Every structure is written in structure tokens, then in C-alpha cells.
């Protein structure tokens, strides 16, 4: 807010007003009595209550001071007493919990508004109001009513009707009357029919109208109809488990708690993120994607968790931008819906409401038998070559690729469950390229991207075709972040956009090491052995059953080794070794190429065999040609000019 501006002054005034109201209510509760000063107090008895434009309107009859101290049952109203229309804000109404026949004391500074064409005066500024309970019967009745739910009649008036922007036909009047629900406590006898009537009458199609009319406290008696554009999981704070789920365990992503989320869009193009409950397994995310995406659903029992903007949630809005403009013309507030609406000139949303469920409420009602909505935009699948040529930044992209190699980033200062993982992928569009574009690209999977156990287990078993949905492209990198979903099966609905999505037919080829090779990539390497670093060569024993490389001395016999994982003595350990070899490569003739090799790798086997045949003479392997080797590039430095690699085995 601008310093000294009208908005800042209004904000301060509202804060002082809220403080004054809270202090007054606290004083009344602590004194446990009605303020004795009756000067200027307006005493009314409620006859009828309804809600209009988030304001609770009470039709009341003014009481004389002589009747003020009588209980509501004994306060017989004189028909000649004036009728008043009293306005209560949502907060005041929630505090009073008023019902017909209640007596309310309204303290100054209330104001009376006389309308030109109205017979009933309107009472405003009713923040300092108190319900009167003067008898034991009244208190008992209040406790009984407190256990039942009050259904308030809502007069839903559209802005188009208020400003005469729409045709006022009989249908509109009929809809307005249908939206009125009788004001009565919910009982076991007639509650079901009233709730059914409520469900039928209070379905809206505007998220923004629901937020403005229902406020932040939650939607209790209304529903809003939306289309599910995306289904995904988000990591949740550990405190979320105890806050909403009690003792029910949340699904885990490497020790991270996660929750199911929906990105929904209404008929006006407005987006909202709905954060739902936990899943029993991360594998459920795939079935929810297939069952729910593209379907219409009704939201109820929601409350606003946050109103976020583009500057505060770049990841969320990059996903929203990929779904904008809408696939079909959307409604425009304040305009007749019969006219042809264009969506190309509509500005993208600048804010989004994060909604969450209220415990004990009906949350999401999805009609899975319904046809896919025309508003739904399936992920647009592109080939990797096309993605690498995108000029924009923070663009969402979806692609189908084969994972060749995975590697966890080894930053020792970062916990394992918060480290990034690199997936090296390729497809037919990259393998068929002659030059200029890499044959393999690295996809960075951040810790905030929730992976299902099915994906994790499949990648550990071998090379897999994986569908990357809504990954982020920018600054020459593909990143899987929050709201990115990895699937083993392609969605039922997706648009190929003319991309070449054919399967790989021949063996996978890697780019050879050259002057353009960068760190944290994989490449093919050929060269001549010029040296072996004997000082860094080492060996270690491993368990012959499980492969555990951290064996300990057996306490009962210090000459034997013990495996903690197998809980058994290791009598025949497998010896593993590591070597560093220096190569001379024609493609990097000016660089020192250092390759770390392991026992299982082809280069190590070749060197060990040569050394063994020559009675471990290092000179016997110098000048030997090796290649093509698959290597991971650890670092590329110019001072000194050195490339450090590690030989790897592709999945």
C-alpha cells in the first residue's frame, strides 16, 4: 500500500475497528452480564432471517425498554411497534448465532437508514450487538439449538440482474425463487429432504462468486461446479499429518508426506487448486488421473487456505498458463451469455485461490460416467527435439521418453530425501538427429516432485518408457517440479501436436566426448590409456549374499567379517576395487581425461586382465586403445584443462 494513501488509512481504520469489537465482546464475556448503560441501546426481537450478498438480514420488531428485561417467550410484541430491517455482517452473525424469536441488544454507534421508496428503516453498523438470555428456559433452548444446524434462506442476486445487463424473463425469476431454502433447524425427520433441496438449488458455476459470497470461513450450504484439469500430489508439511489426519498415516515420498490435489477451472475460466486428503498409496495417483481428469465435479465443504498471486507461486501459474487460453469460449461476468464470446483476448488469471477441505464435509463429487468436458485441455505431447527449441522460459511441457540412466546428486550437506535426481532420457526425435542437438538430455527431478513407488521400482529394475506430464522447461533445462507427474502409461487423452512419437528401433547412441560436453551429462568415450593412478586405487570387501560394502569385524572372532544387513558372518567376501585411468582422447586433445572405473565395468575388466597377464606391470596397459565407453561427466575445468568422468552401465 502507498504510504499515507487512502488504502493504507482504510486498512488501519479496519484494524482499529476489529480490535474495538473484539475488546468489547471480550469485556462482555468476562463480565458475564449485559452492560448496564441502556442509553442509545436499540432492543429488537427477530421475526425472520435471510442472507443476501453475504450480509445477514433480520426482519425485527423494536421492543420498548420496559419489555427489554423479559425473556423472549414473555416479550409479547405489540403489533404497533415499528418493523426494522437489521443488517449483520458475516462475522457478527456467526458470533450471535441468532434465530427467530431471539432478543438482540444493539449498542451505539448503530445507524438508521431511511430509503426513499422503502417503508422499513434499515439499521446498520451493528457490530456491538449481544443476544439476551434472561431465563433458564432460554438457556436450555439455546443449548438444544446449538446441536442443530440452522439453514438460512439465501437470496442469490446476480450482478447482471442488479444492473439490468441480462434479460429479466420468467426463467430468471423462477431460478431466483428456487434458490430460496426455508429457514428452520435441521432435524432427523426432515433434514434429508431439506439437504436434498439444498443440493439441488445451490449449485453455482463461478468460483469467484462462491468465494465472494461465502467468504473465508467455508462453503457449507452451496456447491460450485468445475472441471478437473489436472490431478497431482504435492508434498505437505509434517504438521499437516497431525492437523488433518490424526493417526491416519499419509503416503510417503522418500520420507516426505504428500496429499492429493486438483487443479480445477470454472465456466468463467477461473482456476483454483483444491488440496484434498491423503492417498493410501502413491500408486493411486495414476488411477485418479485416468478417472478424474477432464470430468466435471461439484465442490462442497471447502474453505480458503490462501489467495496466491503470480509473483508468489510461479510454479502454479506456469501450469495455469499452459492451460490458457481456454479450449472453448468461457462466460464473461456482466455480459449476456447468448452472445458469441471470444477467449483469445482474455488476459490470463493474475490470482488463484488455494482451497482445502473441511473435516466432516462432503468434499468432491465427481461424475465419472459423464463425458469429458469441452473445457478440458489434455497435455500437449511434444518430441524432445521440439522442446529443446522452445524459446520461452518456465514453459510447461509433456513428453514420452526412454530413461537410460539415473543418478542421485551427491551433495553431502543436503539430506538424501531432499536431493535432486537426474534422469537421462532420449527419444526417436533425438536419436535421428545428425548434429547440433544432443542425443540424450538430462531431466532434473527435484525433491518436491512426488514419484510413485511404481515409478521408483520400475526405474531401479531397468530402462523404462516414462510419460513426463507438465515438466518445466527453461534456461536450457527440463525440470520435474511440484505438479509434475511421471507415469508409466500414456494418458487416455493427450494431443500429439504432430510430434514424432515413434518407438526407438535400434541401439541407443550417446554423444561422444568433445569440446561442447558439459558437466552432469553422459557421453560416449574412446581413447588411449596414458596412465593409471596407483595412489588412488583401492579395494574393499563386500557381502557375497547382499552386496553390502560396509562390513564390520565379528566381535566373537576378530579375524572374520560380519554383515549387519544379513546379520550373518561373511566367510567368503567378494573383493571390489576402484581405479583411476588417464586417457588421451582425439576429441579433447588439449585436456586431461580422467576416468574412474569399477570392477564390474568393461574397462576395468580389460585393464585387470592385461595387468594380470603382465604380472601387474602398469607399463603393459599404456598405449592400449579403449572405447566406446559410456561415461558420466563429473566436472569439466579449464584451469587446469581437465575432464573427470566415471564409467557407467546404462539401464
UniProtKB/TrEMBL annotation:
Query: DUF4503 domain: which residues?
Result: 265-650
Q: Which organism is it from?
A: Poecile atricapillus
Q: Which GO terms describe its biological process?
A: double-strand break repair via homologous recombination; regulation of establishment of protein localization to chromosome
Q: Which GO terms describe its cellular component?
A: nuclear chromosome; nucleoplasm
Which superkingdom does the taxonomy of this entry point to?
Eukaryota
Lineage at the top is: Eukaryota, Metazoa, Chordata, Craniata, Vertebrata
DUF4502 domain location, by residue? 1-113
Q: What protein am I looking at?
A: SPIDR protein
InterPro entries listed in its UniProt record: DNA_repair-scaffolding, DUF4502, DUF4503
Amino acid at each position: 500500500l502507498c504510504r499515507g494513501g487512502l488504502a493504507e488509512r482504510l486498512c488501519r481504520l479496519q484494524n482499529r475497528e476489529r480490535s474495538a469489537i473484539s475488546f468489547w465482546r471480550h469485556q462482555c464475556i468476562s463480565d458475564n452480564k449485559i452492560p448496564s448503560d441502556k442509553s442509545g441501546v436499540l432492543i429488537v426481537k427477530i421475526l425472520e432471517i435471510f442472507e443476501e450478498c453475504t450480509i445477514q438480514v433480520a426482519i425485527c420488531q423494536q421492543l420498548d425498554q420496559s419489555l427489554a428485561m423479559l425473556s423472549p417467550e414473555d416479550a409479547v410484541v405489540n403489533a404497533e411497534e415499528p418493523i426494522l430491517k437489521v443488517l449483520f455482517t458475516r462475522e457478527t452473525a456467526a458470533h450471535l448465532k441468532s434465530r427467530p424469536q431471539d432478543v438482540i441488544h444493539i449498542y451505539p454507534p448503530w445507524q438508521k437508514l431511511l430509503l426513499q421508496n422503502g417503508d422499513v428503516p434499515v439499521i446498520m453498523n451493528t457490530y456491538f450487538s449481544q443476544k439476551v438470555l434472561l431465563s433458564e428456559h432460554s438457556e436450555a433452548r439455546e443449548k438444544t439449538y446449538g446441536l442443530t444446524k440452522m439453514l438460512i434462506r439465501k437470496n442469490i442476486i446476480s450482478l447482471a440482474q442488479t444492473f439490468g445487463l441480462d434479460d429479466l424473463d420468467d426463467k430468471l425469476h423462477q431460478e431466483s425463487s428456487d434458490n430460496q431454502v426455508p429457514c428452520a433447524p435441521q432435524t432427523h425427520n426432515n433434514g434429508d429432504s431439506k439437504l436434498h433441496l439444498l443440493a439441488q438449488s445451490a449449485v453455482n458455476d463461478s468460483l469467484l462468486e462462491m468465494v465472494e459470497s461465502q467468504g473465508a470461513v467455508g462453503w457449507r450450504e452451496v456447491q460450485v461446479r468445475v472441471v478437473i484439469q489436472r490431478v497431482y500430489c504435492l508434498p505437505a508439511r509434517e504438521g499437516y499429518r497431525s492437523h488433518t489426519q490424526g493417526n491416519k498415516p499419509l503416503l510417503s515420498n522418500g520420507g516426505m508426506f504428500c496429499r492429493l490435489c486438483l487443479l480445477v477451472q470454472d465456466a468463467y475460466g477461473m482456476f483454483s487448486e483444491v488440496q484434498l486428503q491423503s492417498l493410501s498409496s502413491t500408486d493411486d495417483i495414476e488411477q485418479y488421473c485416468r478417472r478424474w481428469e477432464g470430468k466435471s465435479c461439484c465442490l462442497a465443504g471447502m474453505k480458503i487456505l490462501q489467495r496466491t498471486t503470480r509473483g508468489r507461486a510461479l510454479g502454479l501459474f506456469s501450469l495455469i498458463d499452459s492451460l490458457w487460453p481456454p479450449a472453448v469460449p468461457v462466460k464473461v461476468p456482466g455480459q449476456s451469455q447468448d452472445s458469441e464470446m471470444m477467449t483469445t483476448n482474455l488476459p490470463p488469471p493474475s490470482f488463484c485461490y488455494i482451497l482445502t477441505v473441511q473435516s466432516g464435509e462432503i468434499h468432491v463429487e465427481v461424475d465419472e460416467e459423464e463425458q469429458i468436458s469441452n473445457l478440458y485441455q489434455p497435455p500437449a505431447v511434444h518430441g524432445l527435439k521440439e522442446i529443446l527449441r522452445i524459446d520461452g522460459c518456465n514453459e510447461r511441457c509433456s513428453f514420452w521418453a526412454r530413461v537410460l540412466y539415473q543418478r542421485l546428486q551427491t551433495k553431502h550437506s543436503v539430506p538424501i530425501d531432499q536431493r535432486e535426481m537426474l534422469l537421462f532420457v532420449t527419444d526417436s526425435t533425438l536419436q535421428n538427429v545428425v548434429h547440433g542437438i544432443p542425443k540424450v538430455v538430462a531431466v532434473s527431478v527435484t525433491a518436491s516432485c512426488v514419484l510413485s513407488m511404481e515409478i521408483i521400482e520400475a526405474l531401479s529394475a531397468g530402462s523404462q518408457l516414462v510419460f513426463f506430464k507438465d515438466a518445466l522447461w527453461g534456461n536450457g533445462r527440463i525440470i520435474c517440479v511440484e505438479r509434475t507427474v511421471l507415469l508409466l502409461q500414456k494418458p487416455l487423452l493427450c494431443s500429439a501436436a504432430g510430434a514424432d512419437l515413434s518407438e526407438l528401433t535400434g541401439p541407443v547412441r550417446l554423444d561422444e566426448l568433445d569440446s561442447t560436453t558439459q558437466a552432469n551429462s553422459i557421453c560416449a568415450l574412446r581413447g588411449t590409456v596414458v596412465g593409471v593412478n596407483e595412489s588412488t586405487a583401492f579395494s574393499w570387501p563386500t557381502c557375497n549374499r547382499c552386496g553390502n560394502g560396509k562390513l564390520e569385524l565379528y566381535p566373537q572372532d576378530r579375524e572374520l567379517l560380519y554383515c549387519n544387513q544379513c546379520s550373518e558372518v561373511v566367510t567368503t567376501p567378494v573383493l571390489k576395487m576402484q581405479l583411476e585411468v588417464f586417457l588421451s582422447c582425439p576429441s579433447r586433445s588439449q585436456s586431461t581425461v580422467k576416468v574412474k572405473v569399477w570392477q564390474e565395468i568393461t574397462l576395468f575388466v580389460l585393464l585387470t586382465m592385461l595387468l594380470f597377464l603382465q604380472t601387474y606391470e602398469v607399463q603393459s596397459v599404456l598405449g592400449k586403445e579403449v572405447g566406446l565407453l559410456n561415461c558420466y561427466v563429473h566436472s569439466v575445468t579449464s584451469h587446469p584443462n581437465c575432464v573427470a568422468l566415471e564409467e557407467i552401465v546404462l539401464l
